[in-house]
Amino acid sequence: MEELDLRGVKCPMNFVKTRLKLDKMEPGAHLCVLLDPGEPVESVSESVMSEGHSIESTEEQADKSFRVLIKRA
Asked: SS3 of 20, please?
């Protein structure tokens, strides 16, 4: 599983970086993305799903960031 730490990265760059990483991955592979709370979690999750990928889980971490597990379409 790949991991991408995008804490501190502003919208829409966090989605752009997520998309670029997913584009390089094999179908069915998983990507764990670490995001700040609020808009980053919402916008990345919505954008990823609109491209056909699936969100396997979204978990809040001890530092209040979020861990979003994405399965590549």
From this structure: helix
* Structure tokens given for 20: 């670029």
Map tokens 């991408």 to a residue. Answer: 4
Two tokens, residue 72: 């590549």
Sheet with 30-35, edge to edge strand ranges:
2-5, 30-35, 66-71, 54-60
Q: What's the predicted TM-score (pTM) here?
A: 0.96
- For 6-25, how does the pLDDT look when each residue is reduced to its tens digit (9 = 90+)? 999 999 999 999 999 999 99
The span from the CA of 14 to the CA of 36, in Å, is 10
**Domains of the chain listed by start with CATH number:** 2-71 (3.30.110.40)
